[in-house]
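In this section we turn from sequence analysis to structure. A common task in structural bioinformatics is to predict how a protein folds when a small molecule is present, because the ligand can shape the pocket around it. The inputs are simple: the amino acid sequence and a SMILES string for the ligand, here magnesium ion. Study the lines below before reading on.
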Amino acid sequence: MTEAERKQDVQPEESTLKRGTLVRGIGSFYTVRDAQRREYTLRCKKKFRREKLVPLVGDEVMFTPGQGEEHGWIEEILPRRTVCLRPPVANVTRLVIVVAPVPEPDLVLVDRQISRAFGQGMEVLMVVNKCDLDGNLAGVLRQEYAPAGIRVIAASAKDGTGLDEVRGALGGDALCCFTGQSGAGKSTMINALLDLSLETGDISRKISRGKNTTRHTELIEKNGIRVMDTAGFNLLEAESFLEPEKLRERYPEFAPYEGKCRFSECLHDREPGCAVTEAEQKGLISRGRLERYRILLAEAREIWRERYD
Ligand SMILES: Nc1nc2c(ncn2[C@@H]2O[C@H](COP(=O)(O)OP(=O)(O)OP(=O)(O)O)[C@@H](O)[C@H]2O)c(=O)[nH]1
Ligand SMILES: [Mg+2]
Ligand SMILES: [Zn+2]
């Protein structure tokens, strides 16, 4: 069969509605991969703009493929399990926060991400990369985050430390998403894990920051692992719809003490007789986590006040 005949042959099938996963989006063009791993270039139907619906990497969509060189159309976005706006992705079930000794980790940023992830029922995993530069950071962060039920893996994309462990933690049927500050080594780590060649950048010497090398989210599927590489960022604004009373529910390490404070409405913000404060004083809860919880709590209260007063 010639190529032209083959194309004609499959045309009737290709004009029907198909299902796939959005793996990349650049400008107004989206790439969708079907179950046979074929990729299609698509655009969005106008109705999406009217409904203010923006397709995200990770979305499951129904689409009509284009004919020949023509692009096709995304017809429908299927219901999402989870949504993040930073990075903008859908259906992630396991968030992999990558930190490193350089750039210096911003743990308020990390805790913000954890709070949002737990708020949506995602699993969270922390990878402490570049442990070839500093062997202590992973241990310090494990003390902070293990009580929250977060597994902390010490790794180095450079010398290979911990890569098997990270690979093991990405498997199963999870849709994983690497996130973290620019320059932490997300792309380098994914390259080392899956033998790929995603673009990587160096760290600015002057300000010890990444250079925002990855610009677009990419969903990679290889060796039974489904993982997104995303653009790093250095800021994450506060959530606008978070009830201050709900924040504490996103701290699994508080759970054993809930209901044991003197006041039943205790927000663990230095109220007298607070069981969470006592647990921190006894070293059962990390001081840093509690301090940052209070920063996020103050922020949530401020936003709530502005909204409803
Ligand atoms: N020493 C050391 N350097 C590393 C390691 N992993 C990555 N790097 C370096 O860190 C720098 C940034 O790596 P990238 O992979 O581009 O970082 P990124 O997190 O993808 O950054 P953005 O795409 O900007 O968000 C590069 O110079 C890498 O070579 C590591 O394990 N050890
Ligand atoms: Mg990158
Ligand atoms: Zn309390």
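Residues 239 and 300 are 7 Å apart (CA to CA). As an exercise, try to locate the residues that line the magnesium ion site and compare them with your own expectations.
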